## 1
Amino acid sequence: MSGTVTPSFSLSATGHTAGYLKVGDSTNSSGWATFHLPIINLNSGSAPKVLVIGGNHGDEYEGQFAAADLAAKLDLAKLRGQIIVIPCLSLPASYASTRLWPTGENFNRLFPGDENGSIAQKLAHYLATELIPYCDAVVDLHSGGRGHYFFPSGTASVPTTGDGAASLLDNVTAWQTEYAIIFPSQPRTNVTALLPGFAAAAGKSIFTAELGGAAVATARSVGIAKRGLAGVLSRIGVTSSGEDKPELRTKKFVDMRAPEAYHNAPEAGLYENLKPAGSAVRAGELIGRIHFTDSPNRPAVDIQANCAGVIGVIRGYPRVKVGDCIAVIGPVRETID
Amino acid sequence: MSRTASCTIDLAAEGKSSGYIQIGDSTNTSGWANHCVPIISIKNGAGPRLLLLAGNHGDEYEGQIVATELSRRLQASEIRGQVIIIPCLSQEASQNGNRLWNNGANFNRIFPGNEDGTINEKLAFFLSNNLFPTCDVIVDMHSGGRSMAFIPSSNMVWVSDLALRKVMLANMLAWNTEYHMIGGEQPSTNPYSLLPGDVVRQGKSLSTGEFGGCGWTTAETVKIIRDGLHDFMRALGILNGEYKTRTERGLPEAKILDFREGDAYVTAPCDGIYENCVDLEDEVKAGDLVGQLHDFNHPDRKPIPVYAGRAGVISVVRGYPPVMTGDVVCTIGILRKNIAEFEAAGN
């Protein structure tokens, strides 16, 4: 229970209800203020219950458009349960086109949140204590943001042990993307601080995707996001649209679990992508270069692929610092062990 | 001639040399400071002198990458005449991922500059007074920056001076890109305050292009600008190697996107988060949906549809999704299947 966040309507209301999560606030410009986060409830009064999140990160727009489209257009005659949609979770960050909130908070590192913390922490606490426990499945829509561009793909962060892996690997095929990208649990990170990690630990069925990026949403990438989301909702069984056809499911996995999958900039400079996302490369093949526009005599630093595979992620924002991730490459597999 | 900026290398010297345009400065953190803009000269005997410019806007990286690469690789033995390269004009804007300088200056609106003004104004004055008059051809490479993505292409303004128009047209076609965009002059803007406008004012041969955008680069966009620049330099007779037109390579003639008149620019009718519903090169009819504006603050508000004002080809789409009323969200060019059809269609 949260004493600092309340919805403007009852989640048990049936039909289409649009309203807000209201968060108590008090700012320099507004006393007795209430932060309003839009939320839409689509409910036929039965299970399964699904939470759909867009804009966990502000500058990842593909999922925000897909979630907003779902909330506005879903045919209630095809609804077989309940879908709760938050189209733009990090609202101030989306309007600022930044990954993080203006406070510097990464919403995807705040769980389980804090009832008496910042606005973002209060919202995370409400999700952790009310919305996520209420639902059976959680759909969290991402893309690369300004920093990266993903070959649009369903994703799964697969634990090395435990029985969560099988259901995640099954779920990820519902996105109908050419590849599914398989990540390890993120190193040096408390996985339950992430929204999907928290929901997975709570025993929920998890669907995540990285649907483009570079802080630009094209008609093509948004189309992939909308079709993928429809496939996921059909798989969960919360819609009767019939869009989870076996022949449309993702068949190939790009395995990003090895440490050598991640390529980091060895120098600060201007990074040039030499290969499109989705291209196959050999180990040692040139994939990018770092240029030095302030000392043009200096040779460019070549970046070679650490391993053979498909480039799942390329660089968005070209100005890189030492250690910035510039590419992620993994082998293509038919099955994941 | 500028008294507040100078070049550390002798631009008349044969061979390859590199150094800086130095501009006197004095800042909170540095007295007797110099703002240094890298400049490279490659010269091999008599022939045309080309000035190659990139990073006029900081977040347009495609040109900066190929200009930096060319600065390193090009040797005097590979050319006839001279190539002077400034790979990144707006250094601090490029470092910060911004179109504009930190003081808010748009380098492409401050010409002919001011010898006693800000650093960027002093740099513009140096270009306008010291460099442009000594060069035969000036190339200014752009892309959409963070806010826009263009179909990568060389382009031109359909200037009224017929002799200049002929030169600029030949320059544009020499890049051999699949499309070219030809526009009228930008409304409500002094054309001579732009770098290319200052070049035209001085009667010099100019070539420009918009080679991508969105504040990033892809392998595809950088290949287009790199190949195009090499073709352009061969067509001028500066770079060794035989120049071949698209036709001579068996490629279809370049398509022209005509922006001379009509409702080419689609603008946002209100503030919001803009979703592109069309991609570059899509053909649209007047009244087709090209995008929609979301109000993420109001969950029950339907997105505001944005429609094409005329038929044509989507030439520019929006990069940065948060828009304000009046921001350009896409442009629609009228497709002319070649330059002959373009010329027949207009004045």
## 2
Amino acid sequence: METHEHDVLVIGAGGSGLRAAIESAEAGARTAVVSKSLLGKAHTVMAEGGVAAALGNVDQEDRWETHFQDTLFAGKYLNNWRMAELHAKEAPERVRELERWGGVFDRTPSGAMSQRAFGGHTYRRLVHIGDRTGLELLRTLQDRCVHQDVDVFMECTITHLLRSGERVCGAFGYWRASGEFVVFRARSVVLATGGLGRIYPVTSNSWECTGDGLALALEAGAELIDMEFVQFHPTGMVWPPGVAGLLVTEAVRGEGGILTNANGERFMARYDPKRMELSTRDVVARAIFTEAREGRGGPHGGVFLDVSHLPPETVKRRLPGMYNQFLELAGVDITKEPMEIAPTCHYMMGGIRVEAETGATGVPGLYAVGECAGGMNGATRLGGNSLSDLLVFGRRAGAAAAEAARSVPLEPVDPAEVAAAEAELLAFLEGGGDEDPYALHADLRRTMATHVGLFRDETGLRTALAEIDELKRRARRLRVPVPERRYNPGWHLCADVRNMLVCAEAITRCALERTESRGAHARLDFPELSEAWGSCNLAVSRRDGELSVERRPVVAPDELEPLVAARKEEEASR
Amino acid sequence: MSARRRFEVWRGDAGGGSFVAYEAEAGEGTVVLDAIHEIQRTQAKDLAVRWNCKAAKCGSCGAEVNGRPVLMCKTAVASLPADRPVRVEPLRAFPVVRDLVADVSWNYEVNARIPPFTPREGIEWRMAQEDVDRIEEFRKCIECFLCQDVCHVLRDHRLHDRYVGPRFLVRIASLEMHPLDGADRTPLLAGAAGLGLCNITKCCTEVCPEGIHITDNAIIPLKERIVDRRYDPLARLVRRLARRSG
């Protein structure tokens, strides 16, 4: 079988994977990046509003401490405090570094990088270029990467991690184009596979976001945390049906966009009078959902987001992507009429449990970074923190993986493990099953939307678990009816669905366990925030083939306590 | 509102293929990619198609629809003539992998040969917004390669070994016009990039889904730059003297 050998194997070529690969290669490690898509197409390109960093270019008072406090306040203090600290401290340097690598961002009158306001950030903090910041970031990292000694393997999907004893020593996957199998041997493996939005029917996420890294990590013995916290972005398009879920950047509200219901009422005044449209995403999403559910929505089940009071030229210059998106896809001129929007599944706060400094999982040789890693964001993520997250921790994980690779041998691959991985994929093609992957995927998405969405309760969650059990049973008979190995999306979906089922179950089990409402997790039967739940995360691991959920204390170093206490006091006095 | 339309989708591989007829829903707001997905879900479960974001931001779903290179995710079925089937085929300037998927790997090889951003030494990291605006247009490129597909130098004359195509002239322009960049890419432009092969028919500009003025704002200024730097009599004299003394 085709086999490649590297010191560091990075799985995923979005922002976090590329940043990790750059650092690893710079440290002298022989580095490979495996990308499920073509290079430069990763979901990072969809990030619009900006990258959060306390540079203080616009609001000079901004400091890392405030960014740290904002991040923890949004995360309802369930964040890994150490991660939030490192993130807030290092984000400014990571952004300056991007500029030195050729990234181009909007400027202040004095020629420094400009920064814009965003929900939940005390100061204007998001470095941006128009509303396509993610593309700029990804392109900058991509170009940096290809001019380094990094081997890039495009359109290659990893379906199994390979182990030698406890240690991860490589990965197994297939080439999309040929359907042939491939083995990557490596001393360190970095998971950077992104999110899992495709388990919900209405999502801003691309087809790739199927939670692959989370399922791979669980299988290899790592833990997931905070899986009950799925971010529904408040503003996704609702019409036409083909674009339902497509992201409408928070920058629309950052630039002064106003939310109204069918009665023309600026309803955020009833939900968060102080922050209004720029409240945290969980609050705004639930407000929009509630307005629509209670009959004050628009013709397509959303509410209205309006920038038509701003000068048309400002809208076109500051939000060019949104202007074009609505004009081209919905026939709406946002300089003249409001957009109709509703919440869309956008981001997974939870993910693989990692050590803050290195991205190391509990499994030797395995690291995780970016959206597939958990801890940084706690119960809700602030807009702009995902791009800075992937820069800060991408660099750290890349460095740690390269460093560890120096002292670890290239372990042998177990042929039996490879054979089992091969057999599983071939069964989807040539086995005796009769379950259609497209239908199974649609059913899973329906279950998650109905029972594990913005609002949850015990009855619904138990129903979801039962349905997921039934889907898992059906999934054992998955097969695509056309036995074609070359670029066969139906075949690929079989493996993706397998991963999505694991993630869906983890989310549902954690959501059932956490009997309170906090951040993005809202329980109708437990509507209040509970003090007792405030100091623990939920961790998922695989025990004897079954998922089990346990409590873990929040990582909260003493020296950060005064900053947190100060913020809590400030909020209490409001 | 719902309406079914006929689609003719090219199915095949490098060995050959043909158009296969399907029907799919084409209600208000349906884009070609929606129809392709429906066909895939219900009638041709192995139909090969490349896509990612479905939001015209990643540039993955380029194909030729009724003979014109477009992003399938932003081409409304309603905008296409109703009296005949919608014809969908892969980008033809590149080898086909299978069905609607083309092998665009050549573009990545070209990109790797372009000297990267190289900041001048001792600069202060300040830029004017108007300088940012000028290159921002080029940096909007989502690498859908529709411009490469329509360019007759690549599509008809197959000069992939002598010409980098509009996409990478845009890329070079974004670097050359970066106010803090210090590298000189004019030797590349005049040589291996094959800038002279472009005869400004502007087909690339017409198909760009990002509305980048490829010919006017990137290619023509680069051509002028070559003329200024390479054919300026004073510069030639300096070069000749430099060669002699070297």
## 3
Amino acid sequence: MIQLTRRALICDETPSQITALRESFDSTHAIHLPGFLSGDLVDQVQHAIRSAAFYDRSHGNNGDIGREECMADNSVLAMLVLLANDSRLLTLVRSITGCAPIGCFDGRVYRMRGAAGHFDRWHSDTGVDRLIGMSVNLSESAYEGGRFELRSGDSDHVLWQIANTGPGDAVMFRISDDLVHRVTAVQGENARTAFAGWFQSRPDFLSLLRSSTAAAPLGA
Amino acid sequence: MRELSGESVLLDLKSGVYFGLNAVGTRIWTLMNEGGSLEDVGRILCDEFDVPPPDVQGDVLRFASELCAHGLCHVAPPR
């Protein structure tokens, strides 16, 4: 079990299990981590999301890659970003994925609703020092559609796919010029909500915070 | 709170504002969370940093006051 709780990262995987995860990631460029966010943390985040403000957001040139609802910056997003930057998690992600040294994780909470016509077309996410993508399911209910799919950029064959509907479950996947991914359209009434972003080579987390408007120094 | 290379980041869950602590602030915060009084914290820091007690106690009090002012801790009665 690899799990983020409010207090700490819990990892009771043995070295051989980590090796197995590494081999799986090497093979498929992605892994699924069930229960990555602890149950109480998922409950807390979902409770906060219910009353959070969202705004429409488009990706790509002229919005051709995707459209979603993005949660406005708030304290629960700040908490998720802080937890995802646990130095032990960054080390663990590097062990599992074999990626270059990680400086920080930066992400957002977003929502896709079928009725709103939200979509996410094939794209690579390369650039701006991104190494590994991560999406953590925060949806209140199981949704239809909304499958994460990963394939080589020069083939139609899907290498890896998952619905990722378990509460707090995470998907981590390699960012590369050779790989593209997408989330298929959500169908039905239930929204697909996720905390998603990238483990990046830079900046380091403290530098990221220093550039944030939501940071303040405290002396001693 | 999360430690990062000797520094720490505190998050105020009400406001969503991050606060950065240097190494000494991190040590004071850790000792405070162990439940000792501010006097105990100052005494330990004196030993660890070999600094005169009056200087350290003043710094600890100022730091604790700043934390309280930001709502990151509160004064509790002695156990």
## 4
Amino acid sequence: MNASRATAIWIALGAATLVVLVASLAMGSVALPVSRAIGALFHAHSATPDIADDIVLTLRLPRALAGFASGALLAFAGALLQVLLRNPLAEPYVLGVSGGAATFALAAMLGSLPWWGVDIAACAGAFASIVLVLGLARKDLWQSGQDASPRLLLTGVVIASGWGALITLILSVAPENRLRGMIFWLTGDLNGAAAPWPALIALAVVLAVIVPVAPQLNVLLRGDTTARALGVPVERLRLRVHLVASIAAAAAVTTAGTIGFVGLVVPHLLRLAFGNDQRMLVPAAALAGGLAVMAADLVARTVIAPAQLPVGVVTALIGVPMFLWMLLRRPR
Amino acid sequence: MILRLDAIVLRAGKRTLIDGLTQSIEAGEMWCIAGPNGAGKTTLINVLAGIAKAASGSVSLDGRALASWRATELARARALMPQAAHDAFSASVLDTVLLNRFPHLTGWGWESDEDRAAAHAALETLGLASFASRDVLTLSGGERQRVALAAVLCQNAPLLLLDEPLSHLDLHHQIDCLHALRDAARAHKRTVIFSCHDLNLARRFATHALLLDGNGGAHAGLVADVLTAERASAAFGYPLALIRDGEHEALVPSIPRS
């Protein structure tokens, strides 16, 4: 891997993202020509906006951007946690962030709060879970000594199972008419994701914090002793990665619910295709994750239109066979 | 580059492993650290590398205490090969070796042609040139060990600290690696410190030895004075005999007379 190859990968993924973005603006229950869809972006302040402008600007664009941002955050967080925990099975939800968000969000839905109340509850739940895991695992994150990854992973997994039990409890006492909304939230749903900006800003911030230390992540993968001997401030780096990955997962979950599979699989697909260099992988995972969720949402809202599927179902249904194919065709 | 140990004390729980070791180690010397399991060889190597703290005493490199070195500066001055390598994900042998160029990276952290040349040269030195594109997960234990050694060599540090670099290696490769290390010490005036369980290879290749007994005792000096039958027997708690055949010598476990 070198800088020019990484740049080529980023440009290819960025171009594909733009294509899917334009398709997301043009396709739907009212099909628009591509030129019309792009034109709407520049009519934003025109005196006479028509219905097509309205569809693109108030419905399709925010939804596509929200999908991109949450997918990017999830794949980014997954890639980071796989490095931090040195475990290929790690994904954004493994440390319990989504469990906390889901528990609080479902409790808010049970209490009939409006959508913004649910979002605030999800955000609060995610941060409650981050603080909880950080508090319990603080020794493993801050102290030098033996390899801390297995204990941090176990702490997160156990907290996540605790949230899982609470989620099941809420689902079992919830009235019938609320259940459908809850299930959609749990599977990951972009329907009604009206405000993409918080997630996009979060994405820009977490990338800016991690991209400069991406070379250190390569070294961290080799184990704490090696990383320390090569001059990497292991404790500080681990804390930074843990916090950033948690915040990224929290922002994604708050925006779109717990979209499954993207955070686990997108980093691995990129590793299988291009190798495991974090300098390339971290930005590429963000681009590819955003691309994947935006494309999946396009499928989710067009394939059985006017009805819609939860986007998380589409990511998993497409992702599972694709991932298995890439994994198994690879000669060892 | 002079490494100076000043009254180093190492403890494990309530046990005192090393009780006040003072020693200067100079460029061009090749030191073997020997001793029974749990005698503190790995701990001492980590202390010398500046990534672990001694119970008391201090280590200085070029007259400066290790604690006052900046981490990346220290990483350009000394390389550490830990006992075991972690490979959680696939990676090519070349990329794995290139990681040890981390202290030399500048800008956005991409390797330069110089870094690549250093990695290829290190692979060449250990006879691994044809392995460059192999996946580290497919290597045998001995091959992985040689890749780790190549990584440490390409870091280009004047001080090499190696924790059991010969484990898992067959006899031929043990000799090859020791030749490479001796070359690093003699021709390139590096300092090589390695831990090793094969006293005979140590006697043949090392210039100096540090023999630990795990109870606070430590002998340091020229290898022929330290790794004697008498001292090794005492340190390992098993009688050893020195046998000679022409110019060959070997320490072998004594056969008990029953």
